[in-house]
Every structure is written in C-alpha cells, then in structure tokens.
Design brief:
The protein is mainly alpha-helical. The protein has 10 helices and no strands. It has one domain. It starts with 6 loop residues before the first helix and ends with a helix. The model has no long low-confidence stretch (mean pLDDT 84).
C-alpha cells in the first residue's frame, strides 16, 4: 500500500474518501477538509494533502458536463488571482505559526461565520473584484493547511447565489486552486510515486461518491442546499477545532 499504510488504515481512509466525495458531489466543497480531518485521526495527513488535491481535480472531470454553463467565471478568476498571490507565501506562514495554530484560527473564524449564516443573514451589497480577490488571498493562505475552500464557501454562502451557480463556481475554483498548489507541493518534495499510486486507487471510489452526491443535488431545493452548505461549514469548523484539541 502507498505510504506504508496498513490494511485497516487503508480501509478506513477508503470509507472516508467515499463519504467526502459524496459531499463534494452534492455541495461542491468540503472534500479536502473532511478527508484531511479524518486522516489526521488515523495517520500522518501531510503526505496525503497532494493526493487530496489531485483527487479534487479528478472529480471535476466527473462533474464537468453537469456544471458547465453554471460557473461564474468572473468570481473564479478574481479569487484565483488573489489565491495565486498568497500561495507562494502561505507555506512559510504555516511553518512560522504552526499548522495547528493556523487550523484553530481558521476553524474559529468559519465557526463564527457559520453561526451568523444560520440566522439567515446575507450580504446586501454587491461584492466587486477587490472583495473576491481578498477572499482569494485568504483562501490561498489557508490552502497550505488543506482547507482553502472553507473561507470561499462561507463568503459565497453569505450572498444570494443560486445553488447551481454556487456549486459549479466552488468546484471550478477549488480545481484551479489545487492546480496552482500542486506544483508548489511537488517543489517541496511532497509529491512522490506513492502519491500517483494513491490517486489511482482512489479513482473508482471518487467516481462512485461523486455520482451519488450529484444525484442528491439534482433533487434538492435551493433552501435545503443552502442549509446543508451552512451546516457543513459549521460541522467542518467544529471538526477542525476538535482535531487540534484532541491532539494537545
């Protein structure tokens, strides 16, 4: 098995991968945060981060036909511009403050934002390029910890965006974010042959999870989707905080 994983650990990770892929198929985000948080409970998650990012790109291939025509490219491009500026520095920041400190800070902010969103609050003013670029910078800083999608999901959840546009835009943005991040991880020595083997083993699991989640999305109402997105953010924030405190 890649990364010297035992059979029991590999099986547990496969189940978590299926669940995370289902959530991604339904909501368009949450895959990396869910899988990395679970992986940290059973093994060292650091070598798995490039695997997760490569899986994000693969899942977009599965979903390309369904999301085509719903992507808000203006949002995507401005957020990716901000992320591209931040990503070269984000690893340095994570190393200076520590991954756990970064995760606590990010998770706490997402938790507060989720609680506010649960009240039904939304942004009333139109967000321009500067706002989207700023969120992209924050996302890029967070992505070295594997949770760059959460600030963007929280930001977009606060806006009156149609479910199909929200989901498609998140999928394309995360794909672009991970494609920018992967070469940086490769330069840092985190991408190996084990990475390629793990991605190959994950391929059929990803396909099944995406298919199941996408079917569920097609039958969901807009209000149900938004409530699920906010509750998912809340759950991921709590999970991120628990992960850190359990390891203290």
């Amino acid at each position: 098995m890649p990364f010297d994983l035992g059979p029991g650990t590999a099986a547990a990770l496969a189940i978590a991968l299926l669940g995370a892929a289902y959530v991604r198929g339904y909501s368009g985000f949450g895959f990396s945060a869910i899988f990395i948080a679970f992986a940290a409970l059973v093994t060292n998650p650091l070598p798995l981060i490039p695997v997760v990012f490569a899986c994000e790109v693969l899942m977009t291939v599965f979903q390309a036909r369904q999301i085509r025509g719903h992507v808000d490219w203006r949002r995507v491009l401005w957020m990716l511009t901000g992320a591209a500026i931040a990503l070269p520095f984000s690893v340095t920041v994570i190393l200076s403050v520590g991954e756990e400190t970064a995760r606590v800070t990010i998770s706490a902010v997402i938790l507060i934002m989720s609680l506010v969103l649960l009240t039904g609050w939304t942004l009333r003013t139109r967000i321009g390029p500067v706002g989207h670029g700023g969120v992209g910078v924050l996302s890029g800083m967070c992505n070295s910890a594997g949770i760059g999608g959460l600030p963007v999901a929280a930001f977009m959840s606060a806006q009156p965006i149609e479910a199909a546009i929200f989901r498609a835009t998140m999928i394309v943005y995360l794909t672009g974010l991970d494609m920018i991040t992967l070469p940086l991880l490769w330069a840092g020595g985190l991408v190996t042959w084990d990475t390629a083997i793990a991605v190959g083993l994950a391929f059929p699991i990803l396909g099944l999870g995406i298919w199941l989640g996408s079917r569920q999305f097609l039958s969901a109402s807009p209000s149900t989707f938004r409530r699920f997105a906010v509750m998912l953010l809340l759950a991921l924030a709590v999970l991120g905080l628990l992960r850190v405190f359990l390891r203290m």
